[in-house]
From TrEMBL:
Organism: Kribbella sindirgiensis
Gene3D superfamilies: ClpX chaperone, C4-type zinc finger domain
Keywords: Chaperone, Metal-binding, Zinc
Family stated for the protein in its record: Belongs to the ClpX chaperone family.
One GO-annotated biological process of the protein: protein folding
Domain of life: Bacteria
SUPFAM superfamilies linked to this entry: Glucocorticoid receptor-like (DNA-binding domain)
Binding residue positions for Zn(2+): C8, C11, C30, C33
InterPro entries in UniProt: Znf_CLPX-like, Znf_CppX_C4, Znf_CppX_C4_sf
GO MF terms, alphabetically ordered: protein dimerization activity; unfolded protein binding; zinc ion binding
Pfam families registered for this protein in UniProt: zf-C4_ClpX
Protein name, per record: ClpX-type ZB domain-containing protein
Amino acid sequence: MPDNVLRCSFCGKTKDEIQQLIAGPGVFICNECVDLSVRVINEQPIPSFPPLDGKSDEELLADMVRLDKSRGQVEAAVQDRVLRLRSRSVTWARIGEALGISRQSAWERFSGEE
């Protein structure tokens, strides 16, 4: 269940953990991820990330929760698109095909909010 806290869709940090959060269509990106992306595009050295095996259980649990919560934002954006498509009479078959799932699966996943 989404917690309604805005967070970066890439690193999962909340808006209170970073300087800026930029909104896109159903996703958000923080200034830190933008900076990292610019470095990659400019082929500059990027900082190494600590190996996951080097993190404590508490750090891994916090990472997992942060990533899981950012997934809710994306799910809400997909739900919004489905509702818009259904309001235009786009069939469940077309929606399912676009998502790579069956018509029935699309209906089961999204029809409860319709």
